[in-house]
């Protein structure tokens, strides 16, 4: 299996190596939270997430890409990763994005994108010929490009955005297996900045705004589960589900503190509690081994620093 090493090498080649840090989503901040699941979900999943009891969560907001010091006023994709600590030390993890769907349909596409978008030291920009060749080989990337065109993408704080599973997963219990996707919808509302508002912001405003909100009000998200209809794409993260769908309010995540440690966490999205199973989405299945390579490298470097 060469992919996990190749892709982490490609991330390092594109972004440089920031010793002891993640090879992707390098800039981020840890938080502590509580999640109370909705028992109505037990109809679909036996996960302890939906026991109705409060569970502790260690999470992380992040910027996509291996940029250690990207400014918060850059137009960039953001992530929210969650580790739920369930009874008997069972863990459940999610690593979501504030995108409606993913740009590439295969791990090869993700790798090809890293290789094609390396900045030319002369021009400071990727080689347009390489980018064009990449898009010709992975034409699905035009879908996300079109969806984001002209859209304001950056919120005025991490608390004013929705984060999506993007992949489909199966909810399971003794009776059935149900395909679903989910989103964390902010109770404070989604608020995106216009281009002119964004350019006035400083490099740490996403965190500063979140800190301020946390002092003044409840910062929370509702987990909204969307059940698949027959025929919905289950293995292609670039395919949105169109039309009416059954949606279930699956619980509430409430942020409690920004004083948390999450650097020692590998937010592998296949670490799922009993009651969830992965689909055969090839991008989802390729993430776990790649995260492990990144995790191993950063821990080894941290050890060497001491
Ligand atoms: C083949 C496709 C992908 C590859 C190779 C990849 C690779 C990586 C790597 C190497 C890391 C850093 C892991 C660590 O050192 O802890 C990472 C972090 C992350 N990825 Fe991916 N990724 C992929 C697709 C995705 C997708 C589809 C999503 C969302 C649906 C996603 C969301 C995230 C998030 C939120 C983080 C940050 C987690 C944290 O805060 O620690 N990635 N990714």
TrEMBL record:
Superkingdom in the source lineage: Bacteria
Cofactor(s) needed by this chain: heme
One Gene Ontology term of the molecular function aspect: metal ion binding
Binding site for heme: 291
Gene3D superfamilies named in the record: 1.20.1280.120, Catalase core domain
Keywords of this entry: Heme, Iron, Metal-binding, Oxidoreductase, Peroxidase, Signal
A GO biological process held by the record: response to hydrogen peroxide
Catalase core domain span: 1-306
Positions annotated as active site in the UniProt record: 25
GO (cellular component) term, any one: cytoplasm
Enzyme nomenclature, EC number: 1.11.1.-
Family: Belongs to the catalase family.
Job of this protein: Has an organic peroxide-dependent peroxidase activity.
UniProt xrefs under PANTHER family: CATALASE
Stated name of the protein: Catalase-related peroxidase
Taxonomic lineage of the native organism: Bacteria, Pseudomonadati, Pseudomonadota, Gammaproteobacteria, Alteromonadales
């Amino acid at each position: 299996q060469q992919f996990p090493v190749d892709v982490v090498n490609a991330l390092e080649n594109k972004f440089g190596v920031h010793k002891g840090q993640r090879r992707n989503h390098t800039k981020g901040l840890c938080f502590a939270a509580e999640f109370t699941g909705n028992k109505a979900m037990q109809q679909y999943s036996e996960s302890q997430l939906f026991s109705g009891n409060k569970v502790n969560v260690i999470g992380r907001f992040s910027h996509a890409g291996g940029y250690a010091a990207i400014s918060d006023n850059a137009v960039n994709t953001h992530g929210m990763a969650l580790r739920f600590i369930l009874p008997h030390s069972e863990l459940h993890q999610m690593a979501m994005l504030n995108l409606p769907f993913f740009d590439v349909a295969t791990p090869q596409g993700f790798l090809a994108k890293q290789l094609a978008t390396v900045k030319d030291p002369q021009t400071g920009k990727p080689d347009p010929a390489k980018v064009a060749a990449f898009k010709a080989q992975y034409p699905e990337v035009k879908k996300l490009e079109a969806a984001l065109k002209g859209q304001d993408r950056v919120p005025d704080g991490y608390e004013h955005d929705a984060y999506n599973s993007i992949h489909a997963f199966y909810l399971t219990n003794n009776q059935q297996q149900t395909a679903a996707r989910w989103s964390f919808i902010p109770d404070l509302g989604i608020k995106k900045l216009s281009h002119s508002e964004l350019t006035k912001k400083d490099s740490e405003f996403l965190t500063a705004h979140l800190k301020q909100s946390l002092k003044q009000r409840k910062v929370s998200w509702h987990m909204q589960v969307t059940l698949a209809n027959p025929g919905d794409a289950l293995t292609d993260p670039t395919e949105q589900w169109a039309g009416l769908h059954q949606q279930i309010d699956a619980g509430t995540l409430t942020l409690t503190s920004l004083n948390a440690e999450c650097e020692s966490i590998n937010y592998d999205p296949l670490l799922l509690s009993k009651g969830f199973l992965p689909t055969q989405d090839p991008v989802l299945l390729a993430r776990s081994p790649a995260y492990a390579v990144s995790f191993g490298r950063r821990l080894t470097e941290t050890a060497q620093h001491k």
